[in-house]
Amino acid sequence: MKYLIIFAIIGFWGLQQLNAQNYYWIGFTDKNNSSYSLDHPEAYLSERAIQRRIRQNIQLDSLDLPVNKTYIDSVLSLDVTFVHASKWLNGITVKTDSANLGQQLESWAFISEVHLTKPGTLTKQAYNKFNDETIVDAPPIDSAKYGGSVHQVAMLEGQFLHDLDYTGQGIQIAVLDGGFKNANSLPAFDSLWANNQILGVKDFVNPDADFYQTNYHGMSVLSCMGANVPGTLIGTAPGASYWLLRSEDTSSEYIIEEDNWVAAAEFADSVGAEIINSSLGYTTFQDARSNHSYADMDGSTTRVTRGANIAASRGMLVFSSAGNERDDPWFRIVAPSDGTEVIGVGAVDKNLNPAYFTSAGPAANGDLKPNVSAMGYQTTLQRSDGSFGLGNGTSFSSPVLAGMAASLWQRYPNKTAAEIKDAIERSGHLYFSPDSLQGYGVPNMRSASAILDPIAVQTNKEQRNWKIFPNPFQNKIVLQTARVLNEQEILISLYSMDGVMVKTWQRFGASSIVLDNLHDLQYGIYLLAVQTKAGVETFKINKVQ
């Protein structure tokens, strides 16, 4: 026993010495004289990543080029150790015993900045990143297929896609989080492993760590998307494939984690993932010199937000938890959910009421945030002890929606990330009256499908609220409804049968609408889509002579 105690003390002392190293971000001025070329992206991007850009008509640019190796090698000639690089932000992270690396590098012409991102420490940090989130036992719910997850799926009308066998097959999701404890052995993920849907793992915090004995948080997040336990928990994308990327050091909070996040997002881009889910957020740090302010939540200031925006510009969907800050002094959304191109996700309960903790928008620049919401209060998920429970937090509403987006994108693989994002937002139940707690509200997959492909998705006639006449028509169409719409917005779109939008109209609160001056339309069949808070209704109509 004495030997074991001495061994533990020596191991602990060695760990503290390792943690005592200082971490620095070193930014470079340019990528001049790069050995890489935009004409040969296969040298630094997978074929899948290249094809994602081609499908969405996204041109390669200098952000895609790796960091200049000559610059890296010059820095590494000092007494420093390479941690990772960011081509998007053009710099590297290193660790060193030196406390004055900035002074050593201040005269180097190709270096634009040196930033201490994590100071060395000889004391163990007692920090819990996720201490504001709770996981409790799940009461039984009588549901033959979805079990306790019935509310989080049905709220989005996700079963509409699942019943058509769209469960995310062919879509790759990168999960950026703080750890995936026991994800290699828990029952929720049996199907993922059996079908080779876990594509790989990578640890950006400590590559030497036992990956599946790190924090539980990312494992629970993954279960919201990928779980497949009939009668207990069905995730929103059990058919998708996953990259598990650890970017968060859950035992401390320093700004290096933003650089870890960007490095992980770049990895996700390079391997060809279509979707990033980030149930992480950044505001203040243990080193107060790095603290953000609400003014920094303007969609483009923090490093993690800049990286998230760039990820979206590469043709990926980026989902980010809006934060659990509304009952804390911070109150507002967190980075990178503030990103102009990021889908920030708030939390609601099963009755579509905002969760008491869900962070408030808007972004500091006035943009609507969060963008949308999903179930983040009493969300059913996998626990690290093998049982299933309920979780509270936007950490869980974000993956619920990210997985649903994968199932939607599987159905419409030729749509761009921007088109999928737009359809998700437009299908929100508050689209016509968004607010600073739910954004556009809770999306609906049937409505989103109708927006993406109005020809293929028809509303059941028994559920129709609108009547359209005459049909066939010559010069005008009349729309009538018995519903009281008050002043809510009504969007009307006319499509040709090949899916091209021909005309659009906007009305407010009208129960009777006349669309005239249609004599210039060519003869034939069209599709008329009427969108209100209640959803989208579509009608085939015939233009005659």
Based on the structure given, which CATH architecture of the largest domain is correct? Answer: 3-Layer(aba) Sandwich
Mean pLDDT: 89
- Counting DSSP H or I runs of 4 or more residues, the number of helices is 13
Largest sheet: 7 strands, parallel
Radius of gyration: 25 Å
What is the end-to-end distance?
96 Å
Give a quick precis of the structure:
The protein is built from 13 helices and 23 strands.
What does this protein structure show overall?
By secondary structure, the chain is of the alpha/beta class. It folds into 2 domains: 134-452, 3-Layer(aba) Sandwich (Rossmann fold), CATH 3.40.50.200; 461-543, Immunoglobulin-like (Sandwich), CATH 2.60.40. The chain is 23% helix and 23% strand. The chain has 13 helices and 23 strands. It has a 7-stranded parallel β-sheet with strand order 7-10-6-11-12-13-14, sandwiched between helices. The longest helix has 18 residues, at 2-19. The relative contact order is 0.10. Residues 1-19 and 122-126 have low confidence and may be disordered.
